[in-house]
Each structure stands twice: as C-alpha cells, then as structure tokens.
Design goal:
Helices cover 74% and strands 0% of the residues.
Length: 220
C-alpha cells in the first residue's frame, strides 16, 4: 500500500518515528524527559519506573512499527479486486496529516526549552506545582549519557524487531505461536479480561435483573 498511498504512508512513518522516540522528532524530547526524570529521582520507585518506561518505549516502537509494516509493506493480503480500488487519501484528509507531520518534526525542537528546558519556570509560571525539595528538573541536566541514549536504543531495537518479524521473516511469529499455544491464546484473548469482567460483573447483573423482573415485577 505504500506505493499506492505514499503521502499517507510517509506521514504515518513520521508519526511513528516520533512515537518511537527517534530524534530530533517531537516524541523523543518528551519520552527522553520522562525516562530521564524517573532515573534522576534516585529512589526505588524511580528506578522501577525507569525500567518500566524503558520497556514501554521498546514495546511502543515495536507494536507501532508492526502496524506500519503489516499495513503498508510486505506481501499484500488483499485480493486483486481490493487492490484495484486502493488510492491516495483526498486532500481533506492529507492536509491535516501534513500539518501534524510538520508539528511532529519541528515542535520538539521549538518548544523543548520552554517545556522542560532552561525556561520551564518562566513558561509554566506556577501552573505546575513543584515542591521546594523537588530537584528533578536539575537532575535532568545531570543524568549519565547512557541514560540519555537509552530511549533511542530501545526504540531502534523495537523497530528492528518489528522489521525482522513482519518483513524479513514473517513466518517466525507463526512458528512462535504454534510452539507456545498457551501464551499465544492468553495474549490473543487480552489476558481474558473480557471473560473475567463477564464472570464478575455482567452475569451477576443479569441474574439480579432477572430476579427483580421474574420475582418482583412478574410474581408480585
């Protein structure tokens, strides 16, 4: 689909590069600040948050680029009839996408100094409360270099894994699923939260409603 809708595909690629935290796009500034702030807290909770946010950055890059690769690249799963009707989106859709893409590229560079940089106090002007003992903004300036580069590394690893699994070796996920049926079904069914919700809330609510209906309205 990338060849038939290049502008849409290109805009999506820009958005996903930003989402994966690849500099100098806007997402890299916000993601780096959050991850570095967790490390700069120098507490057990901060260290735990640092590990979790790095893992989240990796998974975000992986699943978002999986979307791009599966929708726009590789062998098409659509038939000839569907592919013959594929076309670029109209201007009414492409124009806002292009404007958002420009923002994704330049807004981080333009606003970083105001949001979390040297001018943050003047910009926020008390709108965000910062306790007198909270030195997190100063700590952002002194994190080790490996912490600064960690979001980029995990983002690139997530993109690389998505490329390997869905472009270079698309049969690998199939084999993994076949050899790990339990885990595959557990994840495919969203940890069975729908079934758990249905068991704990939906069925009891129906039984209660049926009790009032049959035993109350009907019988009384």
């Amino acid at each position: 689909l990338a060849r038939r809708a290049p502008v849409l595909s290109g805009c999506l690629m820009i958005f996903l590069l930003s989402l994966a935290g690849i500099p100098p796009l806007a997402g890299s500034y916000s993601k780096d600040a959050i991850i570095s702030a967790a490390f700069a807290a120098h507490t057990a909770a901060g260290d735990f948050a640092f590990v979790c946010t790095l893992l989240a950055a990796f998974l975000t890059a992986f699943y978002s680029w999986r979307l791009l690769f599966m929708c726009f690249h590789g062998r098409s799963r659509a038939d000839h009839h569907v592919m013959s009707h594929v076309h670029e989106s109209p201007l009414v859709m492409l124009t806002p996408l292009a404007l958002l893409a420009v923002g994704a590229v330049f807004s981080g560079m333009a606003l970083d100094g105001w949001f979390v940089g040297h001018h943050w106090e003047h910009f926020w002007h008390g709108a965000i409360f910062n306790g007198p003992n909270n030195k997190i903004m100063e700590g952002l300036e002194h994190v080790p270099h490996w912490v600064e580069h960690a979001p980029l590394v995990v983002g690139l690893l997530g993109i690389a894994l998505a490329w390997w699994l869905y472009i270079a070796s698309p049969l690998t996920p199939v084999r993994w699923a076949e050899h790990n049926q339990g885990i595959y079904k557990f994840l495919l069914n969203k940890w069975y939260f729908d079934e758990l919700y249905n068991f704990l809330f939906v069925r009891p609510a129906f039984k209660l409603g049926r009790l009032f209906w049959k035993g109350g309205d009907g019988a009384v």
